[in-house]
């Protein structure tokens, strides 16, 4: 902040923001900064207009990072899944739990995690709507398994166990009616890794910072 230039007004008079221009290379940083500013408006209401305006230019106010660790428990061969849910850049919900049903592949484990996270996402959407802050764009769900992402959009499903078919149709229905968008994120940028596996110190600190958790 040493080079920051203070101003007396949070917004330039007569300024009009629009969607022209290139997206920022680090969207997560944008979400984090303005997510934090939303908290500031609780005690500084005079900046509410400016913060609300810039928050409208987030690609999606709601993002969910999800991951699954296939056969993470060597004793019973069950997988671990977890997710991190952000609203307006704020980390508001998370989960880390062992799956109750055996997954025969990493794709099945990831897709079950996707169905579980979608259930939580629907509940959060309903809560946000009750608070009179409806979403202006579909939430984005980010997973690092290309096969799971493909299944969420593919109208053809091969012969699979009943519990997988239920998860498949549940998620596909939400994708088809544009209640959510499933996208791929690289494993390096998968924040939910911290909920599904042991990671080294450097990566742990990096993921923790993205959750905006401070020691």
Give a short overview.
Helix content is 37%, strand content 15%.
CATH topology name of the largest domain: Nucleotidyltransferase, domain 5
Q: What name goes with the CATH superfamily of the largest domain?
A: Ribonuclease H-like superfamily/Ribonuclease H
Quote the distance from N terminus to C terminus: 22 Å
Largest sheet: 5 strands, mixed
Poorly predicted sequence stretches spanning 5 or more consecutive residues:
none
CATH class of the largest domain: Alpha Beta
Number of domains: 2
Sum up the overall morphology in one term.
globular
Count of helical stretches:
6
Strands side by side in the biggest sheet: 3-2-1-4-5
Rg estimate, integer Å: 19 Å
- In helices, the fraction of residues equals 25-40%
Q: Report the structural category.
A: alpha/beta
Report the portion of residues in β strands. Answer: 15-25%
Average predicted local confidence, pLDDT: 82
How many strands?
Answer: 5
How do the SSEs run, as a string of H and E?
Answer: HHEEEHEHHEH
Write the CATH architecture name of the largest domain.
2-Layer Sandwich
What would the keywords be for this entry?
single chain; 215 residues; alpha/beta; Nucleotidyltransferase, domain 5; 2 domains; five-stranded mixed β-sheet; 5 strands
């Amino acid at each position: 902040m040493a080079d920051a230039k203070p101003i007396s007004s949070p917004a330039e008079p007569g300024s009009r923001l629009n969607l022209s221009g290139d997206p920022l290379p680090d969207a997560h940083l944008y979400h984090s900064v303005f997510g934090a500013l939303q908290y500031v408006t609780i005690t500084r209401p005079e900046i509410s207009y400016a913060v609300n305006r810039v928050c409208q230019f987030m690609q999606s106010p709601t993002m969910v990072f999800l991951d699954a660790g296939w056969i993470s428990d060597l004793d019973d061969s069950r997988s671990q899944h977890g997710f991190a849910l952000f609203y307006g850049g704020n980390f508001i919900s998370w989960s880390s739990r062992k799956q109750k049903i055996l997954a025969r592949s990493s794709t099945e484990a990831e897709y079950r995690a996707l169905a579980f996270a979608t259930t939580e996402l629907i509940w959060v959407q309903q809560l946000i709507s009750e608070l009179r802050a409806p979403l202006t764009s579909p939430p984005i769900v980010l997973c690092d398994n290309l096969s799971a992402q493909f299944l969420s959009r593919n109208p053809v499903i091969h012969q699979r166990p009943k519990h997988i078919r239920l998860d498949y149709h549940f998620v596909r229905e939400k994708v088809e009616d544009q209640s959510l968008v499933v996208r791929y994120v690289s494993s390096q940028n998968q924040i939910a890794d911290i909920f599904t596996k042991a990671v080294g110190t450097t990566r742990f600190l990096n993921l923790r910072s993205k959750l905006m958790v401070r020691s």
